[in-house]
Amino acid sequence: MSKLSKQDKIDIYNNWKNYNISANQAAKEYGANRANLFYLITLIERHGIEILDTGYTNYSVEFKEKAIRRVLFNHEAANQVSLELGLSSRGMIYNWIRKYKEDGYNVINHKKGRPAHEEQRQTDSRASKANKGPQTEELKTYCRERICKKIERLSLTKNQRPTAQEIVSVVTQLRQELHVTVSFVLDTINSNPDLPHYHAVVITTH
Fold first, then answer.
1. pTM
2. How many CB atoms lie within 10 A of CB 131?
């Protein structure tokens, strides 16, 4: 949305409101993403044109954590949470969630222009936390739910038992998504009674 001026955004909303110009039509005219324009229109409809006057906001750790938890643990739709909070972009909350996982399930405000040695220290710290895996039962439950859903989808799309290579691929994807250890993924898979095909699977990773 950054390439659209404030006046562009106002025109898009007014055209939608008064002349039935859809987000899809506006997307073609302005060369913008249709989903982003639909979010923009809904945002203005809910909060008014003055929402466009909101400048850069440095959201607090507490604010971000509450938003993240609503999506991950309360299972609220990310777009709806973003709209309710008046976030300028629908992608903001997804970025917060991604960084939350990368930082070992901690919310950290990343400052611009951080010195190189401090950035490396933070990177090492994130890697250390991620290797330990989720530290609270709430986070462990969330990760287990994501793992089981991923494995269930693999089972449903196969007419026969998945190969070891396919299972390894899914385990790798889960590790990257959730920043957990191989052992955590495998323990979750093999302890779930609803996933009988995987109880005897032994995966060795190097």
1. 0.70
2. 11
